[in-house]
Amino acid sequence: MRDMHDACHIAIPARDLDEAVDYYVFGIGAKMARRYDDRVTFDFFGDQLVCHLSEDIPDEAVMYPRHFGVSFARAEDFDRLLRLVEHRKLKVLAGPALRFEGTAEQHRTIALVDPSNNVLEFKNYDDPRLQF
């Protein structure tokens, strides 16, 4: 039912909206769409990410059970993100790594941490049909 003009909506807590803008716009390259006193909305690789000002921030970054990100269909897009992470010295929780090596589900992955301890995972499957 979703077509290419639809966007998935993701909402996460943020302790400081200026930090969120710095990280998402100037860190990983998202585009700011709107900003209000209590939230900021980004175009996050074609989907809608909203950082809501909150005091309920995790004490530490933990991958499971909650994280979000992008499964890139093209290896060059994943490689471009890796270069950006290295160049901008973004905080890495895990990786880059190769998971499920030697299986049909083999993929590269990296987990990042934003300033509010939200975990972002980016992937690239050898077979892009397996990203779902």
TrEMBL record:
Name of this chain's protein: Glyoxalase
InterPro entries tied to this protein: Glyas_Bleomycin-R_OHBP_Dase (IPR029068), Glyas_Fos-R_dOase_dom (IPR004360), VOC_core (IPR037523)
Domain VOC, chain residue ranges per copy: 6-125
One Pfam entry name: Glyoxalase
